[in-house]
Write a structure and sequence with these properties.
Elements: H1 8-22, E1 30-31, H2 33-41, H3 47-61, E2 66-67, H4 69-72, H5 76-80, H6 82-93, H7 99-112, H8 117-124, H9 128-137, E3 142-144, E4 147-149
């Protein structure tokens, strides 16, 4: 990515479209000018996978239809603290029980935790084994490595 900065923006748009489709959104969120600037300015040490994870997480957490630089949370300290706090409060607002709500809660936790099932289970207050079982029952994309893939 560092060698091909012109590919960052088109890839980010493609990842946003893909994430919106996985979440059954009518359309993907737009990227604000500051979000585009942040994408271009970031060093991308994690390469394309980091970009995909960043965009997927931002699309999942978005409630406005427009992604900003703050939504992308490209600083690791910000991602590890503020974004997890935001995810926890967002999880609390989703009513547990209904299949759609549970599906959204699980997917939200998985994306927030970059596919780490142990961390997602902890965030949801359940065992990892229960989380894995619910992923299968709800036919959610299975996390492999550090991103979500269809099963």
């Amino acid at each position: 990515m560092r060698d091909r900065p012109l590919e960052i923006e088109p890839l980010a748009f493609a990842f946003a479209v893909e994430a919106a489709a996985q979440l059954d959104l009518a359309q993907p969120p737009r990227f604000s000018a500051d979000a585009i600037a942040a994408l271009r300015a970031h060093a991308w040490p994690g390469n394309v996978r980091e970009l995909r994870n960043t965009v997927e997480r931002a699309v999942l957490l978005d409630s406005t239809g427009e992604l900003t630089a703050a939504d992308l949370a490209l600083g690791s300290a910000l991602r590890d603290t503020a974004q997890v706090r935001d995810a926890e409060s967002a999880l609390e607002t989703l009513a547990p029980g209904a299949a759609d709500s549970e599906r959204a809660r699980l997917l939200h936790a998985l994306v927030t935790c970059a596919g780490n099932q142990s961390r997602a289970a902890e965030l949801l207050g359940m065992s990892r084994r229960t989380l894995v079982r619910r992923i299968a029952e709800l036919d959610l994309p299975r996390p492999r490595g550090s991103r979500l893939h269809p099963t």
